[in-house]
Amino acid sequence: MATTTRTGDRVRPTYFPQLAAERLDIALCRASAAVARAADTHAAEEGLGVGQQLVLQMLDAVGPCSQQTLSEELRIDRSVMVSVCDDLEQAGRVRRERNPRDRRSYAVTLTDSGRQRLAEAQASIPAFLDDTFRSLTPEERAQLGTLLGKLLRIDA
User: Which PANTHER family match (predicted)?
Assistant: First the structure.
């Protein structure tokens, strides 16, 4: 049963807490949307989009790879990946070169400028995460990571 809360002259329904408790799928969707908005806001302040930062981070970790591999691994739609790589290339953060293993495709390669920009962007991530997940204890954050890994079927 929904309840209400009086705020000044206004009565506000408080059904969502009940809904979230009953429907974990809805709660997770809403939490995900809230975190995504926070990440987008933070990224805008940093001047490097979330997708762009993820691409730079993966290239730094695994080396040159195709846009298709980036798209699949980062779970970014292929059409979106094209524009992310276009923007990074125009900014001098990555280069596209013929893939030596498959001459029909291109390998995306991190440039020194991209590596520097990634380091700058990553410096603010710990504070962003602390602020975004401030209502969770460190243990709860670790548990959330474990549970999300299970839901996403990631072997830890």
Answer: MARR-FAMILY TRANSCRIPTIONAL REGULATOR, TRANSCRIPTIONAL REGULATOR, MARR FAMILY
CA 136 to chain centre: 19
Structure tokens at 2: 């929904």
> And the tokens for 132?
């975004």
| Nearest-angstrom CA–CA distance, 97 and 92 | 13
CA angle 151, 35, 79 (to 5 degrees): 75
Please state whether beta strands 65-66 and 102-110 pair in parallel, antiparallel, or not at all (unpaired): antiparallel
Residue with tokens 């990571």: 145
Q: What sign does the dihedral 97-83-33-22 (CA atoms) show?
A: negative
Q: How far apart are CA 74 and CA 67, in angstroms?
A: 10
- Convert the pLDDT of each residue in 44-68 to its tens digit: 888 899 999 999 999 999 999 999 9
Q: Are the CB atoms for 35 and 50 separated by under 8 Å?
A: no
Q: What is the DSSP string of 93-108?
A: SEEEEEETTEEEEEEE
